[in-house]
Amino acid sequence: MVNLKINPQELTHRPEQPVETGSAASRIAKGVVIKGDIAAQTDIRIDGQMDGTLYSKGRITVGESANLKGKMLCSNVDFLGRMDGDIYVRDVLSVKSTAVINGNITAKSGNALNIRSGSKVTVTGNLQNTGIKDKTHYPCIYATGRANCEIKGNVSSKGGGAVYAGGNTSITITGNIIEKQFTPVHVYEYAQGRIVGDFDTSKKYCQIYLQNHAQVALENTKELNWKGAFNGNPFFSDDSMTWFAEGDDTVLTLKNTDTMEEYKETRNMSADERVPHHYQ
After folding, report:
1. At residue 112, does pLDDT exceed 60?
2. Cα distances (angstroms) measured from residue 132 to each of 110, 178, 182
3. pTM here?
């Protein structure tokens, strides 16, 4: 087995002794089993099984029949299969169908998880990204179009927001939300979110931003002392406002998992009827 000695922090470097793939666009077919490491300069598609480190300077496509173990390092990933191991991606990991990932996902610049319409994904591990590329903000998780997502781990971003979900998407996160430079959770257009964990964020920014028929349930051990508002700037806050809602039928539910105390706030008002609202 070749020792690739790959530094996850610099995905543009090739290993010194790569096991090269032999074509411009290579494929490991269904039924093929590989135990060892692979390095490719070009795009590669995996439909079979692999146990080892997979490196590509291009795009990796993990097909629906693929079952991978080990580590993946590449520029971009289209993911439709299963993997047990960590993924390091320079730009974006996209889920286009059904995916199961047991491991951490780190994106150097773009989305650590971009969930396409109708897709279903389960991740057991932590997700993180830097959040900014070419002065553009990218959330750690982007999901829309009837996507279904379950994360069992922390979600961390450094400037792009932790979660951006909409379009009838359902997302559940069992873990902490970590974001110090931007509004961490933005849910809109009939999307539903459930977060079982705490927020490690800056008080400078609104913590949850709800729009148009969005619903979020937050369960943790904190006291139910959040305050909401229906006017102003949703992306900036002070200690008096920690969530913001606009549009019709927005619902925020807070539950203290120690005392089992629960608070539910529902709003249904048009923009011209919107008035400031706070609660403790």
Report:
1. yes
2. 7, 15, 11
3. 0.84
